[in-house]
């Protein structure tokens, strides 16, 4: 992949792409787990274990995830190559190839998973939309949506 091409050129396209991801996240939740238990009010300030996102076939699985605030997400590298889990904006994702044209880390998290079985966990303490990517592979682009405690979630609660 040509990192040198990573210029912050197409900001408007990126906004569109991010919106699509959000829409996709909402749709995905409708069918994934019909039997999601009701969300009971939880004691505040205690992080709880959330979904595991797998890194395999040069992709984040799933690429869109919605969790409740306070959830800890774990990423696990399932293949014998190095990936990163890097928060930040990515732009210009090609609809056909899935490859982005640029990336811009924001410093919220940045982990290198150097080989199969390596994991990284991060607890999301503020609602919002968090985009992230693998800074090595331009096709690895994903989004976490963190919703307020009172809202429903579509995450794979363990
Ligand atoms: Cu990668």
The backbone outline, from C-alpha atoms, is: globular
CATH architecture: Sandwich
Number of distinct beta strands: 9
Largest β sheet strand count, sense and barrel closure: 5 strands, mixed
Ligands: copper (II) ion
β content, as a range? 35-45%
Uncertain segments are: 6-34
Series of secondary-structure elements, N-terminal to C-terminal? HEEEEEEEEE
What structural class should be given to the helix and strand makeup? mainly beta
| SS field, number of helical segments | 1
Please give the CATH class.
Mainly Beta
Question: What does this molecule look like?
Answer:
With 158 residues, this protein is mostly beta strands. It has one domain: Cupredoxins -  blue copper proteins (Immunoglobulin-like), CATH 2.60.40. It has 1 helix and 9 strands; from the N terminus they run H-E-E-E-E-E-E-E-E-E. The chain has one helix at residues 11-32; strands at residues 48-56, 59-61, 64-68, 71-77, 82-91, 102-114, 119-124, 128-133, 141-147. The strands form 2 sheets. A 5-stranded mixed beta sheet has the order 3-9-8-5-6, with helices on one face. The chain is globular, with a radius of gyration of 15 Å. It starts with 10 loop residues before the first helix and ends in an 11-residue tail after the last strand. The model is unreliable at 6-34 (pLDDT under 50). Bound molecules: copper (II) ion. The site of copper (II) ion has 5 residues, from loops. Copper (II) ion (CU) binds at residues 83, 134, 136-137, 140.
